[in-house]
Protein backbone atom coordinates (compact mmCIF):
# COMPACT_ATOMS: atom_id res chain seq x y z
CA UNK A 1 0.00 0.00 0.00
CA UNK A 2 1.32 3.43 -1.00
CA UNK A 3 0.41 5.84 1.78
CA UNK A 4 -0.09 9.54 1.01
CA UNK A 5 -1.82 10.47 4.28
CA UNK A 6 1.08 11.14 6.68
CA UNK A 7 1.92 14.77 7.42
CA UNK A 8 5.37 13.84 8.74
CA UNK A 9 6.70 15.99 5.92
CA UNK A 10 10.45 15.58 6.41
CA UNK A 11 10.19 11.91 7.27
CA UNK A 12 11.82 12.39 10.68
CA UNK A 13 11.71 9.26 12.82
CA UNK A 14 12.63 9.12 16.48
CA UNK A 15 13.17 5.50 17.58
CA UNK A 16 13.94 5.24 21.29
CA UNK A 17 17.51 4.07 20.63
CA UNK A 18 18.23 7.38 18.86
CA UNK A 19 17.20 9.51 21.86
CA UNK A 20 19.04 10.41 25.02
CA UNK A 21 17.77 8.08 27.78
CA UNK A 22 15.37 9.16 30.49
CA UNK A 23 14.67 7.71 33.92
CA UNK A 24 10.96 8.65 33.99
CA UNK A 25 8.34 9.94 31.56
CA UNK A 26 7.08 12.63 33.93
CA UNK A 27 7.86 14.08 37.32
CA UNK A 28 4.20 13.89 38.29
CA UNK A 29 4.31 17.62 39.00
CA UNK A 30 2.62 20.39 37.00
CA UNK A 31 4.90 22.51 34.83
CA UNK A 32 4.15 25.56 36.97
CA UNK A 33 5.79 23.81 39.92
CA UNK A 34 8.80 22.22 38.25
CA UNK A 35 10.26 22.20 34.75
CA UNK A 36 13.32 20.10 33.83
CA UNK A 37 16.37 22.37 33.83
CA UNK A 38 17.42 21.35 30.30
CA UNK A 39 14.11 22.54 28.85
CA UNK A 40 15.13 26.21 29.01
CA UNK A 41 18.21 25.55 26.86
CA UNK A 42 16.22 23.57 24.34
CA UNK A 43 13.49 26.23 24.21
CA UNK A 44 16.14 28.86 23.47
CA UNK A 45 17.39 26.84 20.50
CA UNK A 46 13.92 26.45 19.06
CA UNK A 47 13.13 30.15 19.54
CA UNK A 48 16.34 31.02 17.70
CA UNK A 49 15.33 28.74 14.82
CA UNK A 50 11.98 30.49 14.51
CA UNK A 51 13.34 34.02 14.89
CA UNK A 52 11.77 34.70 18.30
CA UNK A 53 13.12 35.87 21.64
CA UNK A 54 11.71 33.09 23.76
CA UNK A 55 9.67 29.86 23.70
CA UNK A 56 7.86 27.50 26.04
CA UNK A 57 6.36 24.03 25.58
CA UNK A 58 2.88 22.59 25.96
CA UNK A 59 1.63 19.02 25.53
CA UNK A 60 -0.56 19.92 22.52
CA UNK A 61 -1.85 22.86 20.50
CA UNK A 62 -5.24 22.38 22.18
CA UNK A 63 -3.62 23.09 25.57
CA UNK A 64 -1.60 25.92 24.03
CA UNK A 65 -4.38 27.85 22.32
CA UNK A 66 -6.91 27.38 25.12
CA UNK A 67 -4.36 28.91 27.48
CA UNK A 68 -3.00 31.60 25.15
CA UNK A 69 -6.39 33.10 24.31
CA UNK A 70 -7.39 33.09 27.97
CA UNK A 71 -4.18 34.95 28.85
CA UNK A 72 -4.75 37.45 26.03
CA UNK A 73 -8.43 37.87 26.99
CA UNK A 74 -7.30 39.40 30.27
CA UNK A 75 -5.34 42.04 28.34
CA UNK A 76 -8.58 43.73 27.14
CA UNK A 77 -8.43 42.58 23.53
CA UNK A 78 -10.76 41.83 20.65
CA UNK A 79 -10.05 38.79 18.50
CA UNK A 80 -10.25 38.85 14.70
CA UNK A 81 -10.06 35.29 13.45
CA UNK A 82 -9.30 34.41 9.83
CA UNK A 83 -12.25 32.55 8.30
CA UNK A 84 -10.06 29.56 7.35
CA UNK A 85 -8.24 29.20 10.68
CA UNK A 86 -7.60 25.62 11.83
CA UNK A 87 -10.41 24.20 14.05
CA UNK A 88 -8.20 23.64 17.11
CA UNK A 89 -7.19 27.30 17.09
CA UNK A 90 -10.76 28.39 16.49
CA UNK A 91 -11.87 26.30 19.48
CA UNK A 92 -9.47 28.24 21.69
CA UNK A 93 -10.76 31.57 20.42
CA UNK A 94 -14.39 30.49 20.86
CA UNK A 95 -13.65 29.39 24.43
CA UNK A 96 -12.27 32.86 25.15
CA UNK A 97 -15.40 34.35 23.58
CA UNK A 98 -17.56 32.16 25.83
CA UNK A 99 -15.70 33.71 28.77
CA UNK A 100 -16.47 37.24 27.62
CA UNK A 101 -13.99 38.17 24.87
CA UNK A 102 -15.21 39.83 21.69
CA UNK A 103 -14.64 37.67 18.60
CA UNK A 104 -15.02 38.73 14.97
CA UNK A 105 -14.38 36.73 11.80
CA UNK A 106 -12.36 38.30 8.98
CA UNK A 107 -12.22 37.15 5.34
CA UNK A 108 -9.45 34.70 4.52
CA UNK A 109 -6.07 36.41 3.92
CA UNK A 110 -7.58 39.90 3.62
CA UNK A 111 -5.61 42.56 5.55
CA UNK A 112 -7.67 45.38 4.03
CA UNK A 113 -10.93 43.96 5.37
CA UNK A 114 -9.24 43.25 8.70
CA UNK A 115 -8.05 46.85 9.03
CA UNK A 116 -11.50 48.22 8.22
CA UNK A 117 -13.06 46.05 10.94
CA UNK A 118 -10.39 47.02 13.47
CA UNK A 119 -10.83 50.70 12.65
CA UNK A 120 -14.61 50.41 13.02
CA UNK A 121 -14.13 48.92 16.50
CA UNK A 122 -11.59 51.53 17.62
CA UNK A 123 -14.02 53.25 19.99
CA UNK A 124 -14.23 50.09 22.09
CA UNK A 125 -10.68 50.80 23.29
CA UNK A 126 -9.62 47.15 22.94
CA UNK A 127 -6.33 45.88 21.54
CA UNK A 128 -6.80 43.91 18.29
CA UNK A 129 -5.52 40.34 17.98
CA UNK A 130 -5.56 38.84 14.48
CA UNK A 131 -5.56 35.04 14.45
CA UNK A 132 -4.58 33.05 11.34
CA UNK A 133 -2.65 30.05 10.05
CA UNK A 134 0.92 30.61 8.88
CA UNK A 135 0.32 28.61 5.73
CA UNK A 136 -2.95 27.44 4.19
CA UNK A 137 -2.52 24.09 2.38
CA UNK A 138 -6.02 24.35 0.91
CA UNK A 139 -5.33 27.49 -1.11
CA UNK A 140 -1.52 27.10 -1.13
CA UNK A 141 -0.79 30.56 0.27
CA UNK A 142 1.22 31.95 3.16
CA UNK A 143 -0.25 34.33 5.68
CA UNK A 144 -0.07 38.03 4.63
CA UNK A 145 1.99 38.59 7.75
CA UNK A 146 3.29 42.07 7.03
CA UNK A 147 -0.20 43.27 6.11
CA UNK A 148 -1.67 41.91 9.35
CA UNK A 149 1.12 43.50 11.37
CA UNK A 150 0.33 46.85 9.78
CA UNK A 151 -3.28 46.36 10.86
CA UNK A 152 -2.53 45.82 14.55
CA UNK A 153 0.54 48.03 15.08
CA UNK A 154 -1.33 51.37 15.34
CA UNK A 155 -3.52 49.87 18.07
CA UNK A 156 -0.79 48.08 20.06
CA UNK A 157 -2.15 44.65 19.12
CA UNK A 158 -0.80 41.23 18.17
CA UNK A 159 -0.89 38.72 15.34
CA UNK A 160 -1.29 35.13 16.55
CA UNK A 161 -0.04 32.62 13.99
CA UNK A 162 -0.68 28.88 14.02
CA UNK A 163 2.63 27.95 12.41
CA UNK A 164 2.12 24.19 12.46
CA UNK A 165 2.18 23.79 8.68
CA UNK A 166 5.11 26.15 8.16
CA UNK A 167 7.63 25.11 10.81
CA UNK A 168 10.09 22.56 9.50
CA UNK A 169 9.21 23.38 5.87
CA UNK A 170 9.52 27.09 5.12
CA UNK A 171 12.70 28.95 5.99
CA UNK A 172 14.73 31.99 5.06
CA UNK A 173 15.88 32.99 1.57
CA UNK A 174 13.99 30.62 -0.78
CA UNK A 175 15.89 30.04 -4.02
CA UNK A 176 15.83 27.67 -7.02
CA UNK A 177 18.19 25.37 -5.11
CA UNK A 178 16.22 25.64 -1.88
CA UNK A 179 12.58 26.29 -2.88
CA UNK A 180 11.38 26.12 0.72
CA UNK A 181 14.20 28.31 1.96
CA UNK A 182 16.76 27.20 4.53
CA UNK A 183 16.59 26.23 8.17
CA UNK A 184 12.91 25.31 8.44
CA UNK A 185 12.19 28.06 10.97
CA UNK A 186 8.70 28.78 9.66
CA UNK A 187 6.74 31.92 8.85
CA UNK A 188 8.89 34.59 10.48
CA UNK A 189 11.96 33.31 8.65
CA UNK A 190 10.08 33.01 5.34
CA UNK A 191 8.79 36.59 5.56
CA UNK A 192 12.03 37.97 7.06
CA UNK A 193 10.00 39.49 9.91
CA UNK A 194 11.08 40.10 13.49
CA UNK A 195 8.40 41.63 15.67
CA UNK A 196 7.30 41.35 19.31
CA UNK A 197 3.76 41.67 17.99
CA UNK A 198 3.87 38.17 16.45
CA UNK A 199 2.97 35.19 18.63
CA UNK A 200 3.62 31.74 17.17
CA UNK A 201 1.82 28.61 18.29
CA UNK A 202 3.05 25.45 16.59
CA UNK A 203 2.73 21.70 16.75
CA UNK A 204 6.00 19.94 15.98
CA UNK A 205 4.14 16.80 14.86
CA UNK A 206 4.11 17.62 11.14
CA UNK A 207 7.45 19.16 10.19
CA UNK A 208 9.50 17.50 12.93
CA UNK A 209 7.48 14.37 13.72
CA UNK A 210 7.15 15.13 17.46
CA UNK A 211 3.84 15.22 19.41
CA UNK A 212 4.66 18.47 21.19
CA UNK A 213 3.53 22.09 20.95
CA UNK A 214 5.65 25.23 21.29
CA UNK A 215 4.59 28.82 21.99
CA UNK A 216 7.09 31.41 20.79
CA UNK A 217 7.25 35.18 20.92
CA UNK A 218 8.72 38.06 22.88
CA UNK A 219 10.34 37.31 26.22
CA UNK A 220 7.76 39.47 28.03
CA UNK A 221 4.85 37.63 26.40
CA UNK A 222 6.25 34.20 27.24
CA UNK A 223 6.93 35.24 30.86
CA UNK A 224 3.35 36.51 31.14
CA UNK A 225 2.00 33.29 29.63
CA UNK A 226 3.96 31.08 32.00
CA UNK A 227 2.86 33.16 35.00
CA UNK A 228 -0.86 33.12 34.11
CA UNK A 229 -1.19 29.75 32.40
CA UNK A 230 -3.99 27.56 33.77
CA UNK A 231 -2.82 24.47 31.89
CA UNK A 232 0.64 24.68 33.46
CA UNK A 233 -1.08 24.42 36.85
CA UNK A 234 -3.82 21.92 36.11
CA UNK A 235 -2.28 19.50 33.58
CA UNK A 236 0.90 17.52 33.17
CA UNK A 237 3.82 19.03 31.26
CA UNK A 238 5.08 17.46 28.02
CA UNK A 239 6.61 14.04 28.61
CA UNK A 240 10.38 13.69 28.82
CA UNK A 241 10.19 11.28 25.86
CA UNK A 242 8.53 13.96 23.68
CA UNK A 243 11.11 16.54 24.74
CA UNK A 244 13.93 14.12 23.89
CA UNK A 245 12.36 13.50 20.49
CA UNK A 246 12.13 17.25 19.84
CA UNK A 247 15.78 17.60 20.82
CA UNK A 248 16.62 14.84 18.32
CA UNK A 249 14.54 16.55 15.62
CA UNK A 250 16.45 19.80 16.01
CA UNK A 251 19.72 17.91 15.71
CA UNK A 252 18.61 16.17 12.50
CA UNK A 253 17.30 19.46 11.15
CA UNK A 254 20.65 21.13 11.80
CA UNK A 255 22.65 18.30 10.24
CA UNK A 256 20.57 17.43 7.19
CA UNK A 257 17.27 19.33 7.27
CA UNK A 258 18.00 21.42 4.19
CA UNK A 259 18.96 18.30 2.27
CA UNK A 260 15.66 16.65 3.23
CA UNK A 261 13.74 19.75 2.20
CA UNK A 262 15.47 19.71 -1.19
CA UNK A 263 14.55 16.05 -1.63
CA UNK A 264 10.95 16.78 -0.65
CA UNK A 265 10.78 19.68 -3.12
CA UNK A 266 12.07 17.36 -5.84
CA UNK A 267 9.38 14.77 -5.09
CA UNK A 268 6.64 17.40 -5.08
CA UNK A 269 7.96 18.80 -8.38
CA UNK A 270 7.86 15.31 -9.87
CA UNK A 271 4.31 14.79 -8.64
CA UNK A 272 3.16 18.10 -10.09
CA UNK A 273 4.90 17.38 -13.38
CA UNK A 274 3.00 14.09 -13.58
CA UNK A 275 -0.24 15.89 -12.79
CA UNK A 276 0.50 18.41 -15.51
CA UNK A 277 0.85 15.56 -17.98
CA UNK A 278 -2.63 14.41 -16.94
CA UNK A 279 -4.06 17.92 -17.19
CA UNK A 280 -4.69 17.98 -13.43
CA UNK A 281 -2.11 20.47 -12.18
CA UNK A 282 -3.41 23.66 -10.57
CA UNK A 283 -1.44 26.78 -9.79
CA UNK A 284 0.09 26.65 -6.34
CA UNK A 285 3.24 26.17 -4.32
CA UNK A 286 5.53 23.21 -3.72
CA UNK A 287 3.97 22.61 -0.33
CA UNK A 288 3.78 18.85 0.27
CA UNK A 289 -0.03 18.79 0.46
CA UNK A 290 -1.08 18.52 -3.19
CA UNK A 291 -4.65 18.50 -4.53
CA UNK A 292 -5.25 17.45 -8.14
CA UNK A 293 -7.57 19.73 -10.09
CA UNK A 294 -10.34 17.23 -10.74
CA UNK A 295 -12.88 18.23 -13.34
CA UNK A 296 -16.29 19.37 -12.12
CA UNK A 297 -17.97 16.07 -12.90
CA UNK A 298 -15.45 13.98 -11.00
CA UNK A 299 -16.51 12.78 -7.55
CA UNK A 300 -13.49 12.98 -5.18
CA UNK A 301 -14.98 10.33 -2.89
CA UNK A 302 -15.35 7.88 -5.76
CA UNK A 303 -11.83 8.63 -7.02
CA UNK A 304 -10.43 8.07 -3.53
CA UNK A 305 -12.14 4.69 -3.29
CA UNK A 306 -10.79 3.70 -6.68
CA UNK A 307 -7.28 4.68 -5.62
CA UNK A 308 -7.59 2.72 -2.38
CA UNK A 309 -8.63 -0.36 -4.33
CA UNK A 310 -5.48 0.15 -6.43
CA UNK A 311 -3.28 0.30 -3.32
CA UNK A 312 -2.96 4.09 -2.93
CA UNK A 313 -4.20 5.71 0.29
CA UNK A 314 -5.16 9.41 0.06
CA UNK A 315 -7.15 11.99 2.04
CA UNK A 316 -10.31 13.99 1.51
CA UNK A 317 -10.24 17.57 2.79
CA UNK A 318 -12.95 20.20 2.90
CA UNK A 319 -12.63 23.19 0.62
CA UNK A 320 -12.90 26.73 2.02
CA UNK A 321 -15.50 27.60 -0.59
CA UNK A 322 -18.10 25.12 0.66
CA UNK A 323 -18.88 21.60 1.83
CA UNK A 324 -17.43 19.88 -1.24
CA UNK A 325 -14.46 17.62 -0.54
CA UNK A 326 -11.15 17.70 -2.37
CA UNK A 327 -8.75 14.84 -2.98
CA UNK A 328 -5.36 15.36 -1.34
CA UNK A 329 -1.99 13.62 -1.56
CA UNK A 330 0.45 14.34 1.27
CA UNK A 331 4.05 13.84 0.22
CA UNK A 332 7.03 13.36 2.51
CA UNK A 333 10.78 13.09 2.13
CA UNK A 334 10.80 9.35 2.88
CA UNK A 335 8.92 8.47 -0.29
CA UNK A 336 10.60 7.25 -3.46
CA UNK A 337 10.26 8.71 -6.98
CA UNK A 338 8.80 5.44 -8.26
CA UNK A 339 6.08 5.67 -5.60
CA UNK A 340 5.15 9.10 -6.95
CA UNK A 341 4.91 7.69 -10.49
CA UNK A 342 2.84 4.69 -9.38
CA UNK A 343 0.44 6.96 -7.52
CA UNK A 344 -0.16 9.27 -10.47
CA UNK A 345 -0.51 6.28 -12.81
CA UNK A 346 -3.16 4.88 -10.48
CA UNK A 347 -4.83 8.28 -10.41
CA UNK A 348 -5.00 8.36 -14.21
CA UNK A 349 -6.53 4.89 -14.27
CA UNK A 350 -8.96 5.82 -11.51
CA UNK A 351 -10.13 8.90 -13.39
CA UNK A 352 -10.69 6.85 -16.52
CA UNK A 353 -12.82 4.34 -14.65
CA UNK A 354 -14.72 7.09 -12.84
CA UNK A 355 -15.41 9.14 -15.94
Within the CATH hierarchy, at the fold level, what is the topology of the largest domain? Aspartate Aminotransferase, domain 2
Indicate how many domains the architecture comprises: 2
Strand content: 15-25%
- Mean model confidence by pLDDT: 94
Low-confidence stretches: none
Count of runs of 4 or more consecutive helical residues: 11
The CATH superfamily of the largest domain is known as Type I PLP-dependent aspartate aminotransferase-like (Major domain)
In whole angstroms, the N-to-C terminal distance is 24 Å
* H/E element sequence: EHEHEHEHEEEHEHEEHHHEHEEEH
Order of strands across the main sheet: 2-10-9-8-5-3-4
Q: What does this 3D model show about the protein?
A:
The structure is a single chain. This protein has 355 residues and is of the alpha/beta class. The chain has 2 domains: 16-253, Aspartate Aminotransferase, domain 2, CATH 3.40.640; 257-354, Aspartate Aminotransferase, domain 1 (Alpha-Beta Complex), CATH 3.90.1150. It has 11 helices and 14 strands. The chain has helices at residues 37-50, 61-73, 87-98, 111-120, 145-152, 187-191, 219-228, 231-234, 240-277, 300-309, 337-354, and strands spanning 2-3, 54-58, 77-82, 102-106, 127-133, 135-136, 141-142, 158-162, 198-203, 213-217, 289-290, 312-313, 315-318, 325-330. The strands form 4 sheets. It has a 7-stranded mixed sheet, with helices on both faces. Strand 6 (135-136) and strand 7 (141-142) form a beta hairpin. The radius of gyration is 21 Å and the shape is globular.
Write the layout of secondary structure elements.
Elements: E1 2-3, H1 37-50, E2 54-58, H2 61-73, E3 77-82, H3 87-98, E4 102-106, H4 111-120, E5 127-133, E6 135-136, E7 141-142, H5 145-152, E8 158-162, H6 187-191, E9 198-203, E10 213-217, H7 219-228, H8 231-234, H9 240-277, E11 289-290, H10 300-309, E12 312-313, E13 315-318, E14 325-330, H11 337-354
Parallel strand pairs: 1-12, 3-4, 3-5, 5-8, 8-9
Antiparallel strand pairs: 2-10, 6-7, 9-10, 11-14, 13-14
Amino acid sequence: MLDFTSARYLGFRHPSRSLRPWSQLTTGKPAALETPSEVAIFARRLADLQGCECATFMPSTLHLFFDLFEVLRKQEVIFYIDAATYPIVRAGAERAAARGALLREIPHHDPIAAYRMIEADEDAGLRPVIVADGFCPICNRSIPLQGYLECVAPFNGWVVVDDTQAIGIWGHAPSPRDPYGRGGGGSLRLHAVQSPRVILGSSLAKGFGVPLAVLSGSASLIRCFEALSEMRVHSSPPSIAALRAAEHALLINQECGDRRRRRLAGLVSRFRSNLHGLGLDRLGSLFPVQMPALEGGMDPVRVQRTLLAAGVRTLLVQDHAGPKARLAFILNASQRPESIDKATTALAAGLSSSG
